[in-house]
């Protein structure tokens, strides 16, 4: 799942590379780009919108999830937070989750720490490896540096290893 508004292209590239690593390890993958969805703000007093049902179903059908986020004000993206508001431990119970973050001129560590806390609350199993990418580390043409690509492939492969017997 990808929920970055700011640094959208880099976060999407990063998630795509992590998914390529998972595919290389034998997994079938699906990219769910939250920025392409119109997901209303979570309100428990309103009926659940159809798009929220789709998001929850995608997560509950997965064997593992990679979450990508941009970092704004040292926190993870609003779109991703909103999507996770619709979810509970039923969707994430015991599921391996890999985390990656993209930040502009700062570390993505605070955002990833918060995301890890939320996922732990949802009863997910968080991979110890996570990837943070600083925008200034990317090339001028917005391509990911080779060392980042290697880290992302490793993250994707590790999520598959976590679910493999």
C-alpha geometry? globular
Give the biggest sheet.
4 strands, mixed
**Quaternary status of these chains?**
single chain
The helix/strand series, from N terminus to C terminus, equals: HHEEHHEHEH
Radius of gyration: 15 Å
What's the tally of helices?
6
Q: Give the helix level as a range of percent.
A: 40-55%
Report how far the terminal alpha carbons are from each other. Answer: 24 Å
Strand percentage: 15-25%
* Low-pLDDT sequence parts: 2-6
Structural class: alpha/beta
Mean pLDDT: 89
Total number of beta strands: 4
Strand order of the largest sheet: 2-1-3-4
Characterization of the model:
This protein has 165 residues and is of the alpha/beta class. The chain contains six helices and four strands. Strand 3, helix 5 (109-121) and strand 4 (125-134) form a beta-alpha-beta unit. The longest helix has 18 residues, at 146-163. A four-stranded mixed β-sheet has the order 2-1-3-4, with helices on both faces.
